[in-house]
Description:
By secondary structure, the chain is mainly β. Helices cover about 5% and strands about 45% of the residues.
Amino acid sequence: xxxxxxxxxxxxxxxxxxxxxxxxxxxxxxxxxxxxxxxxxxxxxxxxxxxxxxxxxxxxxxxxxxxxxxxxxxxxxxxxxxxxxxxxxxxxxxxxxxxxxxxxxxxxxxxxxxxxxxxxxxxxxxxxxxxxxxxxxxxxxxxxxxxxxxxxxx
Length: 154
């Protein structure tokens, strides 16, 4: 099967601290933004095929963030890469997010009008060793959004 047609390993963190793990079909071409910092929009609800075989409809308004991952187990000993001067080889704003539950993460986002007007945005983790390929963060669950730097195309 073509990689673009493969379901995406997905972990959804709900605002109530529930964590859902499963596979998400490639809705709206998620895979096309999956390895870039392009800003896109997920639908208001998604069907997640859970690891236990069931399915659940998730209202994204109830989600803090959607993580597209390499492995469901994650990396418990992983130390997230923080802002540094040698920014990865793709353009975007390097930002630090703080969620209402005090979780902090950093990554690159596309500097565009869509970043301002959509209810959520894609964030590319800067560290290639991260378990996350891409994160879709919902703005309503953020308490801060700080721009740390800018990477432009050459």
